[in-house]
Amino acid sequence: MNASLPSRWGLRFLGLGYLTMLLLIPLVMIFYKTFEDGIKPPLDAITSPDGLHALKLSVLMVVIAVPLNTIFGIGCALLLVRRKSKVNPVIDAVINLPFAVSPVVIGLSLYILYGVGGWFAFISEEGFKILFAVPGMVLASIFVSLPFVVRETVPVLQEIGTDQEQAASTLGANGWQTFRKITLPSIRWGVAYGVVLSTARVLGEFGAVTIVSGSINGQTQTLPLFVEKQYANFNSTGAYGASLVLALLALLTLLAMNLLKRKEDA
Amino acid sequence: MGISVEGANKRFGDFQALDDVSIEVPDGSLTALLGPSGSGKSTLLRAIAGLEDLDSGLVTINGENATGKPAQKRGVGFVFQHYAAFKHMTVYDNVAFGLKIRKWDKAKTSARVHELLELVQLDGLAGRFPSQLSGGQRQRMALARALAVEPKVLLLDEPFGALDAKVRKDLRTWLRNLHEEMHVTTIFVTHDQEEAMDVAGQLVVMNEGRVEQSGTADELYEHPANEFVMSFVGEVNRLGDHFVRPHDMEVVLDADERTQEGLVQRIVTLGFEVRVELVLSDGTEVWAQLTRAELQRLELREGQIAYLRPAQAKSFNGSSPSIPDGASTPLGSRDGGDAGLPAAV
């Protein structure tokens, strides 16, 4: 590129301006609006029983969905890369479904499956509530964040190849020892990256969870649902405050992601 | 004892990687599996190690049937072409890996690891990571790692293939010395005939999934079983149905009834050795290996006519290629109907 100085600066200005208009200003506005009337109103909203419950529930979603996705993701990536099979392309395509399907549709499909008259309605009839309860929300969270660990792990597994694993087996290591001492440490940054992305996705999930949870105050509200409810009830300060908490959590995951990236490059 | 493979077959889709292969490797020997890429030599080695399952055939290691046993139970040391270093572990932990799997106690492990690192001349580098080592150092580490568990046999898959020429030569010598010290039955795979002859006492030449011939370097060179072995082990010129080693090509300035005329195209001086490339009247391109002194005596120049007198030629026509003694006929004594070299022009 041999662009002249003015055009280079012009491009930079354009790029930064675009990002500022679309990303930065809206986020700064949240920050500004939250503290417009001081720190007390937003703090009250977040520390209200419903607000705290929403925060706890969001964390619970992460704590359940992300480890499950991580275990499944590693296993699935191993299957896709290490066991060549004719069904692999099908598995590969199915794993990408959550990327392609709108979360609302995912929520609706769970609703149809577990709701009255659905195939799995008997589970609720036996007394184990799924819809409008935590289990349904966990299912929705797992669904929407399923592909991340697989997608991040597959290329790393392909890159490291099988030499190290075979070397370990000739040295007497069994399958589990090889996985724990060789494979897992070799793919750890890829997996960690997938975990961070899954976490961000689960924290921010709105569409699918709204439908299966019913968004009941203090019972089935995660933080994004709480924000929406507060806003709909004209409690903007509460909505802004909770949004800020979400934004901060997102920033933390971004930070973790950057640190991991740097480690991976090193 | 040693290693034996009987009737090994292995197919990858349409590709027959091993076609009824049988080899015997004597206990304590150092044997090279030599062949071009795709000849099945690596597949055979991996089958011995248990890293590849055979479609059929028997693998016996030290008198024990190892067929179907998983790699981890075969007690083999394996060294890979691209080192297969455990990248997230230090040199020490790499070498200690097999010992930790065997639950050796710390003090014993440490003593053994340092003993091996000393053997491979890496003792000062125990705390380094593989990424901080050169290729040659990484391969020596891999060798120490394989030897740490006192394997019954040592298998090396093109161990020096990824190294530069100088390091390769050093490691070759070093491996030979190591084998003399340790006497562990060793098989190593290579496509480099010079390397095979330099290091190994016993050679197995493979081509297209089959064993073409096995024997010592001298046996293969002097009595190749067929055309393939003759041209793969050492250099060769082809004159009609006959094969002549470049050093058996005598270059003279006067024609007689046994010589052929050729035009000197190129003279390449490679130190002591001189390579004279000629083209015969029928268009065949051949080369003769002379010494510097011979070249000076002949006063050969590029573009001049010279005469070739093959001192010794081989023909594999009509004779079964599996008879190791071939049809070696000194051309000077034209007994029998074998030495039908194309007539001199």
Give an account of the 3D structure.
The complex is a heterodimer of chains A (266) and B (345). By secondary structure, chain A is mostly helical. Chain A is 80% helix and 0% strand. Chain A has 14 helices and no strands. Chain A has helices at residues 5-34, 40-47, 49-82, 88-95, 97-100, 103-114, 121-125, 134-145, 147-160, 163-170, 175-204, 207-213, 223-232, 236-265. In chain A, helix 6 runs parallel beside helix 12. The longest helix of chain A is centred in the first third of the chain and has 34 residues, at 49-82. Chain B is an alpha+beta fold. Chain B has a six-stranded mixed sheet, with helices on both faces. In chain B, helix 2 (91-101) packs parallel to helix 4 and helix 3 (106-119) packs across helix 4. The chains are: A mainly alpha (266), B alpha+beta (345). At the A-B interface, helix 10 and helix 11 of A face strand 6, helix 2 and helix 4 of B.
Counted beta strands of chain A: 0
Going across the major beta sheet of chain B, what is the strand order? 6-7-8-3-9-10
Indicate the radius of gyration of chain B in whole angstroms. Answer: 24 Å
* Order of secondary-structure elements of chain A: HHHHHHHHHHHHHH
User: What's the β-strand tally of chain B?
Assistant: 19
Globular, elongated, flat, extended or rod-shaped: what is the shape of chain B? elongated
Strand content of chain B: 25-35%
**Largest beta sheet of chain B, briefly?**
6 strands, mixed
Rg result of chain A:
22 Å
Which spans of chain B have pLDDT < 50 for at least 5 consecutive residues? 319-345
Chain oligomer state = heterodimer
**Total count of helical runs of at least 4 residues of chain B:** 9
Structural class given helices, strands, pairing of chain B?
alpha+beta
The biggest beta sheet of chain A is recorded as: none
> What structural class do you assign from the helix and strand content of chain A?
mainly alpha
Percent of residues in helices of chain B comes to: 25-40%
